[in-house]
Write a structure and sequence with these properties.
Layout lengths: L10 H4 L2 H13 L25 E2 L11 H6 L12 H4 L10 E6 L5 E4 H7 L3 E8 L4 E11 H8 L7 E6 L16 E5 H5 L4 E6 L2 E2 L9 E3 L12 E7 L6 H5 L23 E4 L6 E2 L7 H4 L13
Parallel strand pairs: 1-4, 2-11, 5-12
Antiparallel strand pairs: 2-3, 4-5, 5-8, 6-7, 6-11, 8-9, 8-10, 12-13
The structure holds the ligand Nc1nc2c(c(=O)[nH]1)N[C@H]1C(S)=C(S)[C@@H](COP(=O)(O)O)O[C@H]1N2 and molybdenum atom (MO).
Enzyme class: oxidoreductase
Family: Belongs to the MsrP family.
Cofactor: Mo-molybdopterin
Length: 309
Amino acid sequence: MLIRHPADILPSEITDSAVYLERRRFLAQAGTLALAGALPAGLAHAAGQSLGPLIKSPLSIGESQTPYKAVTTYNNFYELGTDKEDPAQNTHRLKPAPWTLRIEGLVNKPQTIGIEQLLKLVPLEERIYRMRCVEGWSMVIPWVGIPLASLLKLADPQGSAKYVEFISHYDKATMTRGVLDWPYNEGLRLDEARNPLTILAVGLYGEVLPVQNGAPVRLVVPWKYGFKGAKSLVAIRLLEKQPSTAWMKAGPSEYGFYANVNPEVDHPRWSQATERRIGEFTKRKTLMFNGYADQVASMYSGMDLRRYF
Ligand SMILES: Nc1nc2c(c(=O)[nH]1)N[C@H]1C(S)=C(S)[C@@H](COP(=O)(O)O)O[C@H]1N2
Ligand SMILES: [Mo]
């Protein structure tokens, strides 16, 4: 018979993590449980654990935030199922701890960083970002993250590095087979990767990232369609040439490398001019670069954004 210390049992094993979090929140509000410290050590990196004091970023937007419940139950994470409700129900298929992230390729100082180490690298920031899926829905999510630029600096990219590839975890024993050419991967130009808006997210709503949102660490690029934001990253690779991506391979005419939010360039099968903000009924007009044009448009000056879609 196997007897385990309660600290070794992940909350996702006891109950769905979202339910767990709601219950913990209730307990905290009721004053029966202090937010940090009172939890057993084994829960240190479980979804819902508070990430402590955060820097409030001036890059945050002021629009009303999409409720926690919607952010964590309406997800695209095909490895955990292709319906929006699947990822939250299949969190047991991905174990976010222990976890390491490699930074490799054309760098002078390759890194293998444990998740706990990553959390302490630079002060964590809250970044409230507008997010837009290519399917036509949008959310406002208060991410917790670190600027990707600071991580890249640590690895010291070589002069020949021009692109960055992001590779998600994949385990064919537990995850979806077929659909895409796994592992899920994405890419950015090095200047896009270094843009101050680009972050690696480790949390949302001030707490450790739930599995369905890409635990323990995922990319967030708010001026691009959501598919750029590769989840549950195991490697970041610096390259000389533009990498192909899982979605480009699956549908080259539908999913481009740039993936900049552009209401003037339709998806071949639907218009991209409007979007439905989750929780709202009337559609909104989609904004150029998802509303971040002031911060990012200069990176694309002189480029034909219909060709480089
Ligand atoms: N590994 C991986 N990353 C992924 C996806 C995926 O299927 N697998 N889906 C992408 C898409 S299409 C979107 S819109 C966002 C959704 O992120 P969210 O569910 O956390 O809002 O994740 C992106 N990252
Ligand atoms: Mo998406």
